[in-house]
Every structure is written in C-alpha cells, then in structure tokens.
Design brief:
Layout (H helix, E strand, L loop, with lengths): L2 H15 L4 H13 L7 H29 L10 E3 L20 H4 L12 H20 L7 E2 L21 E2 L8 E5 L4 E4 L3 H14 L2
Family: Belongs to the type-B carboxylesterase/lipase family.
InterPro entries: AB_hydrolase_fold, CarbesteraseB, Neuroligin/BSAL
Protein name: Carboxylesterase type B domain-containing protein
Length: about 210
C-alpha cells in the first residue's frame, strides 16, 4: 500500500458518498485521516483506510440513525455499544483492530466450548455480553430510563461523561443530548459521543457534498 493507491481508494468512496464534490471530499478525507507525520508506512495507510471505510459504512450511518430515531417524540429508546475486545483467538491480527460482528461468538457463549482454546478473559467478556443482551431483551421496553449490565433489575443513574469503572454498570439510552454508548472491552465502561470529531467531520461533508 502506498499513498497513491490510498488516494485512489478514497476517491472511489468519495464518488459514492459525496457525488456533489468528489474532489473536494477526497482532499478533505485525506487531510483528516491520512496526511500526517505518522501516516507514512504501508501498514498505517491500510489502518487509515480501514478506519475511513468503517466510519463511512458503519459508524456514521449507525449513529445518525440512532440520533434521528432518538429525536422522535415517543419513539422506542435507542441503545448503542461499541465492541472493542479482540480475543487472542481471533483470526485477525492485532493491527487490524476489531472487525464487524466480532462480538457474535461472545453473545452465543462460544468461549465456554471446552474444545476450543479460549482464555479466562474471553469467558468473562462472553459472560458480560450474554448478560447485556439478555437484560436488553428482558427490560428493553421497561419504563426505567436505564439498563444494568450486571444487575437484572433496571436502575436509574445520572450520567457521568467520564467512563465508569464500577462493578454494576448502568447502560444509558442514546439521546440527542447525551449520546451515551457502552464501550465493551475487558471491563465495560460508559462514555458519550462516539468518535465525535470524525462524526462531525463526516456530517459536514454530507451537508456540503452528499446526495
């Protein structure tokens, strides 16, 4: 991977997502994601392109949909999480990051399959994921404003904009004001405004050059 190839790839994506200003959008994306002193190696360029694709195809559309849905009066509550745990058993290299759908083996309890070489940390993450998903299924329509990861009873809590590090984690709904999301790692934490700078950047591109 070299810079010329990266530029060509970015332009192809810009033509799809920003047809009213392909050249301008390409230049802006390159400046935002790639053109910097620490973005010169082939591996770094691959990582940068991966982040661009992830933001365009997954992060921005998902967050935009969640924001619009949460803005509708009387609509069902929205909950957002980011799965950021990469198991040592992953077939993806560490530098590639956590791929789409990486959480599914943990949702379905695969680390408890004794025939595979899963770690204790994998099992802990899987247990937390199963708690989260089952609690969401049981209490997602509850009149409470929050969901608890560790406690099967939904609880109320004021939002702390800093990530939480507590044994009982309260998963707050995604709202226009707070934009809370659950960051799922070896120890889950709560934060807000996922990838805020990049999302605001893409929002400005869509306003200027989107369809």
């Amino acid at each position: 991977m070299n810079l010329s190839t990266a530029e060509t790839t970015v332009m192809q994506f810009a033509a799809t997502y920003f047809p009213r200003g392909v050249q301008q959008a390409t230049a802006a994306i390159l400046q935002e994601y790639i053109l910097g002193p620490n973005h010169t190696t082939g591996l770094q360029l691959i990582q940068d392109l991966g982040q661009i694709i992830t933001d365009l195809r997954f992060n921005y559309p998902m967050l935009r949909e969640s924001l619009l849905s949460a803005s509708v009066p009387g609509a069902a509550r929205q909950y957002v999480y980011q799965f950021s745990y990469l198991s040592p058993n992953s077939r993806f290299p560490q530098w590639a990051g956590v791929p789409h759908t990486a959480e599914l083996p943990f949702v379905f309890g695969s680390p408890f399959d004794l025939t595979a070489n899963w770690t204790d940390t994998d099992k802990k993450v899987s247990s937390d994921m199963m708690d989260m998903w089952t609690n969401f299924a049981k209490f997602g329509s509850h009149s409470s404003t929050c969901l608890s990861l560790s406690d099967p009873t939904p609880l109320n809590s004021a939002f702390d904009p800093n990530p939480l590090a507590v044994d009982v984690l309260i998963w707050l709904p995604y709202t226009p004001a707070v934009q809370a999301y659950l960051r799922f790692e070896t120890k889950p934490s709560l934060s807000s405004h996922l990838n805020r700078n990049k999302m605001e950047f893409l929002e400005s591109l869509y306003e200027q050059y989107g369809q």
